[in-house]
Amino acid sequence: MGLGRVLVVDDEEDTRKSLRIILTRGGYDVVEAEDGEKAIAAMNSWDNPLMVDLIILDLYMPKMNGMEALAYFRSQFPSIPVIVLTAKPELLNAEMWKMGQGVMDFLIKPIQPKQLMAAIHRAEFLRAVKGHTFVAA
Predict the structure, then answer these.
(1) Fold designation for 5-130
(2) Structure pTM?
């Protein structure tokens, strides 16, 4: 078993392939979905629900876009960190940051391996910190 399981949700096959290569080289197990509907279906499979440690989510996809999928993931799986991808950085604004509770980072396509791994490590660290209660001495 790797360092954890990552769900990659993106409608572009080339992007999913690139992310899969980067993540598997980094020691992660990868599960892919081509849109929000398929990602949610995988997470909710009654006979074998998908357990993931991190979600990487494209914003602009057919059927169910990333904002709709993000709202669902935040309501049903609030402890799973999400990293959002976009090829349209001009559309990222303060409102998305406000509504993106649980979004650990926003990355601009094309993704650079070092940038992706740094975002994942930040998300893992923040998740670990949130899971612990610190007591002042």
Answers:
(1) Rossmann fold (3.40.50)
(2) 0.85
